[in-house]
Design brief:
The complex is a heterodimer of chains A (161) and B (275). Chain A has 161 residues and is an all-alpha fold. Chain A is 78% helix and 0% strand. Chain A is globular. The N and C termini of chain A lie close together (7 Å). Chain B has a six-stranded antiparallel beta barrel with strand order 1-2-5-4-3-12. Chain B has a six-stranded antiparallel barrel with strand order 6-7-8-11-10-9. In chain B, a hairpin with a 5-residue loop joins strand 6 and strand 7. Chain B is built from five helices and twelve strands. The chains are: A mainly alpha (161), B alpha+beta (275).
Chain lengths: 161, 275
């Protein structure tokens, strides 16, 4: 990745968190909102590969961990590092991914991220089941819709950095 | 220097990112497995050095934008409050007389520190806030935090100029509550970092719409701060207890200002916390 690529990704990182803190709250329907951080991570990992995906996944996860209960420190960082690496592998093996598979990857990444997060935090089984039904599924659908729109809007502007 | 940097970058990017993956994974696991003191230190350092300055800057820009509108609003409010002050002073005198009559001793005579919320969790689970008041302003760990609407949480870590607030929805915060109508005591917690639930003895007959306040037991929160209303009553694993979904009076994601009550934990609780 070039210096320009790093700068661009850093700005995307800041933008994702800014949107999560502002637009994310406004877009909430019945307390369900999209996750711009996962959209950012999938987008970067697909574009730049596994190593970059791990780096930004860890950084994004750590940022979330700082504001999470101290007892869960590292849970987001580990989950997002795994997601960044796994999604980045797709870039390595399938260099060009069209829009529909990209959206599918986003949905899958969301699930994997949540499952690892719940696993690491050690929440009870029935709590995880409730969270899965009431939070993960609706938020995944919402994130996929918003992510799909963002992927579509940015797909024509992809540059080789 | 450049060569060394290049070497590190190559090391991390080779083998399809496996080295980078292993490195960050181990780093995450080490963080997660470390002791509470180390974790506190990591979070405090990261918050003080990077996240707080950035959030303070963003927050200041937003504040500047809304300053004019706020000024207008404050003028109107000032006029209204002048009127109300007169009535309030009358009421206070009456209240003082009544307190003496009933020997009421649960006064909140603790100083209050007003603070601004400068940051909150950008993720989906909101469990922590950052406020712009710290030890420099008299804020200490475990002081109660509340808003105009009700209880918000407590100070989990006070730093020099800012503090972290542990919200009621943090699964690690459990507090004793009192139902206002039946006067029965139960405890409140959040098991999933999202919804609040209370365990209250079934025989009390607590119903939907009843109000929960802090009980004063536990030594951290004083008695009588409004917490929330009972939204739904469910059966608990134990027949003698009822599990209730609680709707807090304060919506945490929209908080802009909070008040810190300069009440330190009772000495016995302080001893336990220190241990």
């Amino acid at each position: 990745m070039s210096n320009y690529g790093w700068l661009k990704t850093f700005l995307m990182f800041v933008l994702a968190f800014a949107m999560q803190s502002s637009v994310g709250d406004w877009l909430k329907i019945l307390d369900v909102g999209p996750d711009f951080v996962v959209i950012f991570l999938v987008s970067v990992s697909l574009r730049y590969g596994a190593a970059t995906g791990c780096f930004w996944g860890f950084l994004a996860g750590f940022t979330l961990d700082v504001y999470a209960p101290v007892e869960w420190l590292g849970a987001n960082a580990i989950a997002m590092t795994i997601v960044g690496f796994a999604v980045g592998q797709l870039e390595e093996h399938f260099l060009t991914i069209n829009l529909p598979p990209k959206i599918g990857v986003l949905g899958l990444a969301f699930f994997v991220n949540d499952m690892f997060y719940f696993l690491i935090t050690g929440l009870e089984k029935d709590v995880v089941t409730t969270l899965f039904v009431t939070r993960t599924v609706p938020e995944c659908i919402y994130t996929v819709v918003i992510g799909g729109i963002l992927f579509y809007l940015t797909s024509g502007k992809k540059s080789n950095v | 220097m450049l060569r060394a940097f290049r070497f590190i970058v190559d090391l991390f990017t080779q083998r399809h990112g496996v080295v980078a993956f292993a490195f960050f994974l181990v780093l995450g696991i080490l963080m997660h497995a470390s002791s509470t003191t180390v974790r506190e230190s990591i979070v405090s350092t990261a918050l003080s050095s990077v996240f707080y300055p950035v959030q303070l800057l963003v927050s200041s820009v937003n504040d500047f934008k809304s300053l004019q509108a706020e000024n207008e609003h404050l003028k109107e409010e000032n006029a209204r409050l002048r009127q109300e002050t007169y009535h309030a002073s009358e009421g206070l005198q009456e209240l003082a007389r009544l307190h003496t009559l009933v020997r009421f001793d649960d006064k909140w005579d603790f100083p209050i520190v007003t603070s601004r919320v400068v940051g909150h969790n950008p993720g989906r689970f909101l469990t922590t806030l950052v406020i712009n008041r710290g030890t420099h302003h008299g804020v200490k760990d475990n002081m109660p935090v509340f808003s105009m609407n009700g209880l918000v949480g407590k100070i989990s870590k006070a730093m020099l100029t800012h503090s972290r607030v542990q919200l009621l929805v943090d699964p690690n915060l459990k507090l004793s509550v009192l139902e206002r109508r039946t006067r029965v005591v139960g405890f409140l917690e959040s098991v999933d970092g999202h919804l609040l639930s209370a365990m209250i003895p079934s025989h009390a007959g607590v119903a939907e719409g009843d109000t929960l306040i802090t009980s004063g037991l536990g030594g951290i929160f004083p008695k009588g701060i409004p917490v929330g209303t009972v939204h739904k009553v469910r059966k608990a694993d134990l027949d003698v207890m009822s599990l209730m979904d609680v709707q807090p009076f304060q919506e945490f994601s929209t908080l802009e200002e909070v008040f810190v009550m300069q009440k330190e934990p009772d000495w016995i609780i302080q001893e336990l916390l220190n241990e």
